[in-house]
Amino acid sequence: MSSEVIGRLIADFNNLNEKCVHLVEENQNLKQQNQNLQQENQILKEKLQEKDKQLEKLQERDKQYEKLEQHVKNLEKQKSEELQQLRQLEIISQNLHNNLGILEKQKSEELQQLRQLEIISQNLHNNLGILGSDKTKKNDIKITEERNKFLTFLTNKNEQTNQYLATLSLDNKDANNSSEYFLNFFDTSLEKDTEKSKLYPDIQVVVGIDFGAISSAFSVYCVTTKKPKKSSNYTWDLRNTILKYNNKYSDVMGWNGISKYIYNVVELFKLHLGGLPDNLKPKLQVEYKKAIADYLKEIGKDIKNEIAISWTGVNYFENVLLVLTIPADYSEKDKDIMRECTHNAKLVKNKSSEKLQFITESEAVAIYCMKNELQKYNLLSIRKTFIIIDCGGSTTDITTHKLVENNPLQLSEVTELIRDYCGCTFIDEEFIKLLNEKFETRTMNLIKKNHYGPFRNTVYEFFQHVMELFTGDNMEFYYTLDVEEKIPELLQHVSKEIKEIMEADNWLIDIKYNEIKKMVDH
After folding, report:
1. Average model confidence (pLDDT) for the chain?
2. For this UniProt entry, which segments traverse the membrane (predicted)?
């Protein structure tokens, strides 16, 4: 190979080498540019994400603003309603003032007429003094009769005035709830001359039924002079409001007490009536109306049996009046459902029967307190005001009443019902939730179904302990549940893992202050 060729090859090689170096450099530059672009892209992504977050925050603020705007509108509406109510109160107050002015004016005029009549009477007496004694006596008698007639008229007018004022003060004391009512109830006297009620001429026996969410009771009272076979006043012991069904939930196999047999337990079904929020209503395996009717039917068997044993010749559907207690917040729909359930329980002939009457629980408690506790301590005086606090299974009700009349007993409601949803059912529910967390819901459901007695007694004992001793002040307060003693059946159903944990704790569960306070405050 000639040197010329070699020289050209070397030159070409050098050129190629230079190009290769340039390409490598360009490649490096491209890589660097790519990295820069990736970094810029990442920065853009982060900025975009930040903008998305800001957009979400703005949207959330818009929602909050809308809520706030709606809240302001609601407040304005409430303010408008309150102003309207205030105007109504002002109108009522003005009317009362005007009426009082008119009545005072009338009274003043009548007193003036009386004075004039007395002056006329005195003048007549003086002018007639010159006449003979017989004629004078006759004229005096006539004048006295006329004067007495006028005084009688004036006295009656004053009584009417006082009654009118009393009516005005009762009817207008609350513009929002002017439903002032008076409660009249049966005279329980057993004297022979007692008249029967004109509304219920055939009633011989009155049955009061206290149907509660946790427990129920009834009492039977004879309102005639007919002598019973044993007692004219029978009170049924307090029973649990519980039903036990067969597997198909078609037939009631038992009710009230705890059974050693395995049944499907249904309870707290009354809570499906009234204003309890849906999230607090218990889940039931049967329709709540069926459960209520089934329970009332079982009560009805005892009622009919007691009447048949105690009084011969009493026709249940003709001679018995049922008085059923209901919460004060029951709507007309709730009352209609209770009538339907009572009819389905075969306690009345038809749904609209007048032999079924309702009384609110607060009214019934107020009557009991007046006829017993207030009377016992000599506090039963006219216009006496007293507060009733009714702590039920799921609600606590506060009402203020005033005694208007003593004979017959008449009661007025001074304030509207104040209600809060709190009671033993909620504490029980929280305690059961704790057991579900400790031993799993599936296990506790098995215990509840197969060993309901020990389960319910355990829940009840916990509630009693908390109710009697827990005040919220003692931070060291606790409750120890001995599972092996209270629910020994539980040991057979827990998982291996839970069993090991519980064995290490000797099957004892210490429920501390914070857990108990959370249950109570829930």
Report:
1. 78
2. none
